[in-house]
Amino acid sequence: MNSSTPIVLASSSPYRKELLERLNIPFTCQSPNIDESRLNREAPETYVERLAIAKATALAEIYPEHLIIGSDQCSVVASDIVGKPGTRQAAIAQLETCSGKTLTFFTGLALINPLSGWQRAAVSGFEVTFRDLNRAEIERYIDIEQPLDCAGSFKSERLGVSLTQAMHGDDPSALVGLPLIQLSAFLREYGINCP
Question: What angle do CA 73, 77, 83 make, to 5 degrees?
């Protein structure tokens, strides 16, 4: 494989861009335009892997000679998918639901080369157990962090960590939205070393 293949991140997420910058490899970003609706009875792991692949392949015509990274994330509590809240009230409701419970974050990752047909995909899981939260601290956290664009209203890399009792998983970057350990393994397999 060619280690000089240009890379594009199929995302408009500032969190994913910041994570990918840690690997110190050149890349560009382009937002994919895909339908992110969940299929009927689709398992969370299947859902995020399908969307990660769909995001990467959506840019294949625009970037046929690039290595394209796609990623998607959802969180699950009590078998219900918890998405991005979008509003302050929805964020409050999400965190009230998560209080004292364990939220599992599933992050799908895809790496494709449209020209050669080379493709890898995986899903990383990460569990976050919230301590018992009262309404005042939930509102204070939301007002400070504004996590309206974060799955489960949770920003682990910032003040969100203060809401937790425990966190378990193999790759903390997966919790933020881009599993760098798995991505690094895929890139090495392709022939790109980080660093």
Answer: 40
Query: Cα-atom radius of gyration of the chain, to the nearest Å?
Result: 17
In the chain, count of helices (H) and strands (E)? 6, 7
3-state class of 137 per DSSP?
helix
Gap between the terminal Cα atoms of the chain: 17
- Average of per-residue pLDDT values in the chain: 94
- Distances 124 to 79, 93, 95, 118 between C-alpha atoms, Å: 17, 26, 22, 20
DSSP category for residue 163: G
Catalytic hit among 35, 72, 132, 143: 72
Please give the Cα distance from 20 to 9 (Å, whole number).
Answer: 8
pLDDT value of position 83: 85
Is 72 catalytic? The answer is yes
CA distance 175 to 178: 7
How long a stretch of residues is the chain?
A: 195
Helix (H, G, I), strand (E, B) or coil at 71: strand
CA distance 78 to 102: 8
pLDDT in tens, 156-175: 888 999 999 999 999 999 99
Predicted TM-score (pTM) of the model is 0.93
Q: Are the C-beta atoms of residues 73 and 105 closer than 8 Å to each other?
A: yes
Residue 166 host element (H or E): strand 164-169
pLDDT of residue 119 exceeding 70: yes
